[in-house]
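input
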Amino acid sequence: LLINMKIALQLVVWNGEKYLPFLLASLQKQTIDQFDLFILDNDSQDESLAICNRYKAKKDQLVQVISQKNNLGFAGGHNKLFEITADYDYVLLVNQDLVFEPDCIKKLVTFMDLHKKVGAVSPRLMKWKDLSNTKTSGLFQKSNLVDSLGVKKNKNWSFQEIGNGQVWKKTAKSSHQVTCVSGTAPLYRRAVLDNIQYNKKEVFDGLFTIYKEDIDLGLRINNAGYQNHVLFDAVAYHDRTVSQIGETVKEVVKNKKSQSKYVRLHSYKNHIMILCKYFKYTNFIALLSVIWYEIRKAIFYLGTEPTIVLSAWWFIVKNIKEIFNKRKQIQQK
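output
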């Protein structure tokens, strides 16, 4: 099945020296070696670039490391790599804080090859074991806690990681269909990305910079008639720094307090853009639910960090023409 498949791995790195040795070691142990690796270092200020340059390619494997002198963000970094990987059949995005099981990539590609209506598939993402209070802090160990089984959309149009923090329990199902897959380790069908990219050049929306660009892409995949799946027997471990747990305002507030102001700003801004691009305003009942949720969230931000709301909405106003042009492109698909 996999003989003629061209597979590209895209890794965007920023100050990942504590993670990269574990990630790169897991890539070298993969049971499939017919993939090429493209790494973009987003102006790291640590030893990330040096670590990536020491990666030893397998026979007939292409490894290309790009040193980016100005940080393009997650979306911009991957868009630059998407230009390079245009002629590949499948593209796997790789977060720096990941460790793959040896058969993970082969299982993902095999699943995609057998299911032609799937546009994206993710492994079952599990958490790194918390070693912060031990002598082995900074080392990788597996845990039995779920990091993500995909992303679901709630009635109020909030989004959350399925199963985050829960103990993994084996199921009879080998996979399940989800609204979106996590952007941590998604394998995309390149032909689908080519079909749904904005303006024939943006796979990720360049306005997003960082955070929720995977949700935007997953919604476009669904909109074009393709599916997003999580494959349970393909496993990777992730040390998540930003969580999406719960749909109530109280739960969202708890999540936001653990995030940096930079993340909170882009999360809020990007969520408004998602509503602008996808929400069908003619659904009156859903509209009331979304408005009530968004008003309460905005009140929270205005009462604690008003600059987030003001900065986000100023960005929306400045870019409203481009945002609604992209909404039009989505509708045309």
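quick obs: DSSP finds eleven helices and twelve strands in the chain.
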